[in-house]
Amino acid sequence: LPIYDVLPAYDAAVWRRTAIPLVILGATECLMNRTGVLLLGWIEDTKDAGIYSLAFNIALVVTLPRIAMNTLFAPVISDLHARSDMGTMQVLITKTSSWTFCAGICIAAALFLLANPLLNWFGPGYEAGVPALRVLLISQVIAASAGSQLYVMTMTGHERSAAVLLVTCATLNLAASAILVAEFGLLGA
Fold it and tell me: Which of 60, 63, 88 is nearest to 76 (CA)?
C-alpha cells in the first residue's frame, strides 16, 4: 500500500497532555542544572559562581554515556511498554543502568584524578573548584547507578508523575543548596 494513500491521524488532545509535562521536565532540569551557579552568584560572589559553573560542566561529561544510551533506550522502552513486555523491559533497564554506571565511573575516575591539573589549566584561582568538582563527579556516578528513571517514566506514559517528581526534587535541591551555599560556599553548591 503506497504511503500517500494513508490519511494522517492526529490526536491533538493527547499531544497537549503529553507536551505540557515534557516542557515542565525540560525547564525544571535546566533550572536544576543552574541552581548552584545562581545561588553562588547571589549569596557568595560571581567568581565562585564561575568556578562552580566550570566544575559543574566538567562533571557533566560523566552523563554522556547515559545520554547516548537513552537515545537508543527510549524508543525501545516505549515499544516494550506498548507490547506489555515488562520482563524484557526490566532486563533492558537493568543492563542499561549497569552499562551507564560502568562507563560513568570510568570517566569520573579519570576526571577525579586529573581534577587539579584540569582546573589549573584554566588559570590561577580555578583550583578552588577541585573539591566541588570531585563531589559533583561522585554525585554523577551515583545518578548513573540509578539508571534513567525519567526516560522510563516518559516512555511509559507517566510524564505527569515524572514532572511532579522532578519539580519536587528541584525544590528540595534549591532549599538544600541555599543552606549549603550559605554555610560552605563553593563546596556547598
Answer: 88
